[in-house]
Amino acid sequence: MIAASSALDAIAAETLYSTSLRGEASGSAFVAGNLYTVDPSTAAAKLIGPIRLANTAVGITAVATHPKTGVFYGITAGLSPAVPRSLVTVDLESARATVIGKLSERGSDLAFASDGTLYMWAPQLRRLVKVDLATAAIDPLGPSGIEAGTSGGIAIDRNAGKAYVAATGATGTLDSIDLVTGAGTRGPTLKGAPFPASIDNMTFSPSGTLYAVNSNGGAPSSAMLVTIDAATGVVTRIGSLPVDTRGLIFAPEREGASSVDGARKWILVSLAIVALLLMVVAARMK
Q1: Is 201 strand, coil or helix?
Q2: Rounded distance, CA 223 to CA 212, Å?
Q3: Contact status, residue 123 vs residue 108, Cβ threshold 8 Å
Q4: Is the pTM of this model over 0.70?
Q5: Which of 81, 87, 104, 167 could be joined to 148 by an S-S link, Cβ 3.0–4.6 Å?
Q6: Residue 32: what pLDDT?
C-alpha cells in the first residue's frame, strides 16, 4: 500500500508557475505581464498567456496560492496602467486577472501560511504585513529589525511553520521572521548567486526545496531560477527564466494541462494501480 500511495502522491505534485513583466516604451511606458509554467529541474518556461484585466495588460510582481482553495493571488506592478500596486486573483487557465483592491504599501513578495493567512513583505516598512483577502487592507506586524533594501523574497515552510525573507540582496542573508511578532532573526549569508543584485521571489516546493528568482536588477532584468539551502545559504543555479520574471510559486496543476502532461499522469495512475494489484496478489499467495 505504501508504494501505491507514494505513486499517487507524485501525481498530485504541484506545478511551478512564474509571472513576468516587460516594460516597453511607445510614447509612454507600460507593463505587460505573462503567465508561465516552469520546469523546476531546467527552468524551461512554457507560456500560458498574457495577464489581462479585461482588455488591459498588467504586470504581476509577486504571487501566492491559497493552501486550501488553490486560488492564485498576485500583486500588480507599480507601472501597470490600470490598477498599479493592487491585489488581484489570476485564473490559471486564461491568465485573466480580477481586482480585489489597492494596496496601501508596496509589496515585493507574497506567501501564505498553512492557516490561509496571506503575508506580504513591505520593503519600505521593512516588515511583514498581513493582507486581507477580501479588501487588500494590510495589518503590519512588528518591526523586523532587518536592514532591508528595495526588494525581497519571502517564503513560508508550511510544514515547519517557519517564514524566511531574503531582503538584503543576493549576497546578503537569508533571515527568518516570527509570524506572530514580526521580529527577524539573522540567518546564513547567501553564497553563489549568479547575480548579486537581488532575490526577488521565493517559494517552497511540495518536497521542501526552496526555489527563488535571482535577478540582476536591470530594466529589463535578467532572471535566473535558483535553489537556496535554508541552512547554509548556498545558492544553486538551475537556469535562465524569461526576461523580467518576478513571481514564482508552486500551485495545484491546472485542469488544462498539456496532453503530454495528461499522458504522464495516466501512466503514473496505471503504475500505481498495477503496484496495488501486485501487492494484493502477493498477500493472498502467502
Answers
A1: strand
A2: 10
A3: yes
A4: yes
A5: 167
A6: 74
